[in-house]
Amino acid sequence: MRTKIHAIAGGIGFLTILIFWTSTVFSEIFGSPETIAVVKDAIAWGLLILIPSLAVTGASGMSLGISRGKGRTDALVLAKKKRMPIIAGNGLIVLIPCALFLAGKADAGVFDAAFFAVQGLELIAGGVNLALMAMNIRGGLIVAGRIPR
Ligand code: HEM
Q1: How far is it, in rounded angstroms, from Cα 89 to Cα 20?
Q2: Ligand 1 pocket, mutate which of 1, 4, 15, 80 (most atoms under 8 A from CB)
Q3: Ligand 1 atom with the shortest distance to the CA of 83
Q4: What is the model's pTM?
Q5: Separation CA 6–CA 104 (nearest Å)
Q6: Which domains are seen in the chain, by residue range?
Q7: What is the residue-level pLDDT of the chain in tens, covering all 149 positions?
C-alpha cells in the first residue's frame, strides 16, 4: 500500500512538472500573451498538486527506505535518497518562486527581460527535476523488481 502511494505520488509529481514544462514551451512559442497568462496562472494553481505530491513521495520513500531493512542499503535506494533533497530544494527554492513571479508578470501583460530570464531559470530547474525524478522512477522500478537491473 505504502509502495503504491509512493509510486502514484511520484508519478503525479513527475507528470505535473512535465505538463508545466511542455505547456510553457508551447504557449510561449505559439501562443498569444493571453494564452501565456492563462498557462502561467494554471501552473501557479498547479503548485497545489505538485507540492503535496512531492512531499508524499519524499516522506513515503524515506519510510520505505528505512523500513524495508536488508536490501535497502542498496546503492539504487541510496542514490534515490541523495536525489530527493535536490528535487525538493529545486522545487521550493526555484520552481515555486519562479511560477508565482511569472504568473504575476504574465497577468500584468509584462513580458520583459526579467520575465524571460526567470522563465529560462524555471525551465532549466524543471528540466533538472524531470531528469532526477526519471532516475528515481527507474531506480524504484528496479528495486521493486518490475524492470531488470
Ligand atoms: C521524486 C522522487 C521519487 C520518485 C518519482 C520515486 C518513484 C518510485 C517508483 C515509481 C517506485 C516503484 C514502485 C513500484 O513499482 O512498486 C519506487 C519504489 C521505491 N522507492 Fe521511490 N521514488 C522517489 C523517491 C524516493 C526516495 C527519496 C526514497 C528513499 C530512499 C525512495 C525509496 C523507494 C524504495 C525503497 C522503493 C521500493 C519499494 C519496494 O518495492 O519495496 N524513493 N519509487
Answers
A1: 18
A2: 80
A3: 27
A4: 0.94
A5: 33
A6: 2-143 (1.20.120)
A7: 899 999 999 999 999 999 999 999 999 999 999 999 999 999 999 999 999 999 999 999 999 987 765 456 689 999 999 999 999 999 999 999 999 999 999 999 999 999 999 999 999 999 999 999 999 999 999 999 999 98
